[in-house]
Amino acid sequence: MPNTLPAWQPPPDFVSVDSALPGISVFAPRPVTAQADAPQTFKCPQCGASTKFDVASGGVACEHCGYAAASQAQTVGLQASGMEFTLETLNKAEMGWGVARKELHCDSCGADLAIPENALSATCPFCASHHVNVREAPAAQLRPRYLIPFKIQPQATRALAQRWLGQGWYHPDALGASAIVDRFTGLYLPFWTFSAQMASDWKAQVGYERQESYYDHDDKAWKTRTKIDWRWEKGRVNLEVADLLVCGSSRISQVLVKQLAPFQLKDLVSYAPEFLAGWQAQTYDLTLPKAWEQGKAEMREEAKKACRDSIKSPHVRNFSLTADFADESWRYVLLPVYLAAYKFENKVYQVMLNGQTGAIAGQKPVAWWKIWLAVAAMLTPGLCLGLLGLPLLLAGGIGIVPLILGLLALIAGLAGAFFLYRKAAASEAI
Is the pLDDT of residue 70 over 50? Predict the structure, then answer.
């Protein structure tokens, strides 16, 4: 009897996938592919000119006819939802900026910046190089879910920079009076935020002090001394880490970024393309998996400190830690930063300004002749006392006091000189 049953067909939206068994066909749901929305453009409805997000009004505004429209984005703050570490979450994430943009690539430092479509930029804000080129911005990266809008207005950045440049006695006198940092670039930097619950189990040898008496045969007297009794101990510390920030850009100094902290995440708003109108933004080059590894390393350090703080003794050795993570979540956000690169005596220095709080971090040149004079002043008392005490000691033994005082002063001077040198060197480095 002929078989009249119709041939089996897979359910709708199921596709064939690789099978581990020969001759066996396997079907699975079709993967959800993230699609980039059609980019928006921001034109003034009154005169047709390009609009820009205005910090003062909190919305897009036209510099030609005065048109302004307040942003409708919702402030979510610390209630901004995180995303789980699942493939399904990544597949559902929106892609691209959601607004027509170009990408500026610096041939000198390799930085990539998303700039407004009609921007005419010829200088890299990271290294002040003019070797840049403009190309189409890629739409294959994740779209930010939240951002903190700029709070510091562009016209206020110069005064803040001048005040900062004038601070510090060991910098060149002409630095504070100069106008070398007069053009800051408003830039949204990419950040990953991570939250997790941690259960940290530790094990270590913990030492406890006790006093014991002993007889000193040389002095023929009973004395006391401190002994440390060591014993193995273990424990567990539960720690909740919320909103750990990891910068998603490798083109910027992580030292300076940390000096700009903290950002007030209570001001987070839902991402809307209008916030980028007229402003630059950098795409992340530190991917989510790599950023998470960095975040976990920082969380482990926090857990290690919490475990050490739970031990009721300063004497600890052979410490080991095992940390288990749970309820991990992440967010991709943009944070506001003003960036400037300036030249002083043919050297390039970088300055960053927190676009929310106004905090400044950066490099400042050092007048090293001031440092060497200060070092000489710190070492002179000890050397002079030593030179005074040595002849007196040879003459009659009364120079021991100035020699001891000179040694102590020299040690203090060396410590102060070392601290001053490190502080000055750090102001030039990133």
Answer: yes
Q: Cβ–Cβ contacts within 10 Å for residue 428, how many? A: 14
Strands 185-216 and 112-116: what pairing?
unpaired
* Residues whose CB falls within 8 Å of the CB of residue 330, separated by 6 or more in sequence, listed in order: 82, 83, 85, 192, 193, 194, 195, 288, 292
- Residue 227 sits at φ, ψ, to 5 deg, of -115, 150
Instruction: Give the CA distances from residue 341 to residues 52, 108, 130, 184, 201, in Å, rounded to whole numbers and listed in that order.
Output: 23, 13, 12, 8, 46
Q: What ranges do the domains of the chain cover?
A: 74-365, 368-428
Name the phi and psi angles at 345, rounded to 5.
55, 50
Contact (CB, 8 A) for 94 and 143: yes
Give the residue among 384, 385, 370 at the shortest CA–CA distance from 417. Answer: 370
Distance in angstroms (rounded) separating the CA atoms of residues 195 and 265: 13
Lowest-pLDDT choice from 2-11, 257-266, 275-284: 2-11
321: tokens are 């830690």
pLDDT digits (tens, 9 = 90+) for 307-327: 999 999 999 999 999 999 988
pTM score: 0.71
Mean pLDDT value of segment 225-251 = 91
